[in-house]
Amino acid sequence: MDNNDLLLRENMERIKHKIIVMSGKGGVGKSTVCVNLAYYAALQGHKVGVLDVDIHGPSVAKMTGIEGRRIVGDEDGKVRPIEAISNFFVVSIASMLESPDDPIILRGPAKMGAIKQFLSEIVWPELDYLFIDCPPGTGDEPLSVIQLIGDVTGAVIVSTPQQISLLDVRKSLNFAKKLDLPVLGIIENMSGFICPTCNTNHDIFKSNGTAQSGIDFGVEILGKIPIDPNIVTSSDDGKPFVYHYAKTKAGEEVNKIGEKLLNKIPDVKTKKQDTTKKEENNMSKIVALPLDNGILSEHFGHADKFVFFTLNGTKIESKTEKTPPPHQPGIIPAWLKEENANVVIVNGIGQAAVNIFNSHGIEVIRGVDCLTDEEVIKNFIENNLTDREVSCNHDQHHDCH
Question: For domain 3-263, which CATH number applies: 3.30.420.10, 3.40.50.1820, 3.40.50.300, 3.20.20.150?
Answer without folding.
Answer: 3.40.50.300
